[in-house]
Design goal:
Two copies of one chain form a homodimer.
Chain A lengths: L18 E2 L2 H10 L2 E8 L2 E12 L2 E7 L3 H6 L3 E14 L7 E12 L1 E3 L2 H15 L12 H5 L1 E7 L2 E7 L17 E9 L3 E2 L11 H4 L5
Antiparallel strand pairs in A: 1-9, 2-3, 2-5, 3-4, 4-8, 5-6, 5-10, 6-9, 7-8
Chain lengths: 216, 216
């Protein structure tokens, strides 16, 4: 299991037991949750882009409009990308020891825009393969104009760390005797019933990638 | 309904129809999802703190350890706070028109640390009242030492905007005739069965704030 060397930006200074630097843990979190937030600088102040990321090997990728100011500002610039899964509320016997169970990844580095249209197309296909395997080949093929209108950015998973908490509350020893309900309220992403587009041709079956979609 | 004046940082430059600047929409999103990401500068490069926020009137608040480097760096500094809810995958007939349904809020401004211990305590109580109404008075009271160890930061909801998408895919007119299943796969946060701490006294009933907890 590849272990990433912690840096000044990724080393946990407190709650060390929650930190992980192995790629197995980092990759599993990235693969479980496409939603990410990307911090970048705009005119010298911090800004945030919420978007979807996907992982291919040693990089994460995201995409958007070629006209996006956020994606233009990120190209060649230092960014910080975070993926966070809230797994539960941790209810303790004191306010102070309340917490949350979570899995999170933070990646620092320089974002790079993919210029070559064929590479862009391959990465977009890989995005679909990760999120909705098998769907891409069933779609109306992407046009050159659409590829031109789409920006794809990449970030190496090099300066990265994961942070996790799970399990019951940890209270002051003296508080365990108090008649206060403590425990964990688990949270997860639930997938609802698919809503077909009213303009679908009649009798179209639900495709397998929608039936088997998983997240979290 | 109070309308916030858009600024260079909050005005949507594309997909204008997705932007909202009214406090009703902004507040509803902040109140629906405690998880937030806060972008700030650390040694000149962007960094991210995933944490929980809560709203009181015209401010959002978050808390953490007084020893936290992130919270120290944020005090008095420009930050960007984002709250994002993923409501569904939008599956179109072309890769290009795939999208997500979501609700998000972005707030820019200068974060301020609350210094007075009594004010800190009131804000922490307000946090509990929003997330788990009625729980705070049932807990072992907070100590002066715990208050000292806890930092609370605030950010005014002044330079803020919401962004939303919902509804079915919007495809190229020519693509609607294709035999491709299109539609929406709804996503939401599900609350699992509460897991009592094994060290709870026997026979303790599940408290109402846990039974009635809602998120999303």
């Amino acid at each position: 299991m590849t272990e990433l060397p912690p840096t000044d930006r990724t080393r946990l200074r407190r709650a060390h037991e929650r930190g992980r630097y192995d790629r197995g843990t980092i990759d599993a979190i990235l693969d479980a949750q496409p939603v990410c937030h990307i911090a970048y600088l705009r005119d010298g102040t911090p800004a945030l882009l919420p978007t979807l990321q996907w992982r291919e090997g040693d990089h994460v990728y995201w995409h958007g409009s070629s006209a996006s100011h956020a994606l233009r500002a990120q190209d060649g610039a230092e960014v910080c990308l975070a993926v966070t899964l809230l797994d539960g509320l941790v209810l303790a016997r004191s306010g102070f020891h309340h917490s949350v169970n979570y899995r999170s990844v933070t990646i620092y580095g320089r974002a790079r825009r993919i210029e070559d249209p064929r590479r862009k197309e391959r990465h977009l296909e890989a995005f679909f393969e990760r999120l909705l395997p098998g769907r891409w080949p069933t779609l109306r093929p992407v046009t050159e104009q659409e590829l031109k209108a789409t920006a794809v950015l990449s970030l190496p998973i090099r300066e990265a760390s994961a942070k996790l908490r799970n399990g019951p509350p940890v209270d002051e020893e003296a508080d365990y005797g108090l008649p206060i309900w403590a425990g964990v309220l688990p949270l997860r992403t639930a997938i609802g019933t698919p809503v077909p587009d009213p303009r679908n041709p009649e009798g179209l079956p639900l495709p397998p990638e929608v039936r088997t979609f998983r997240i979290g």
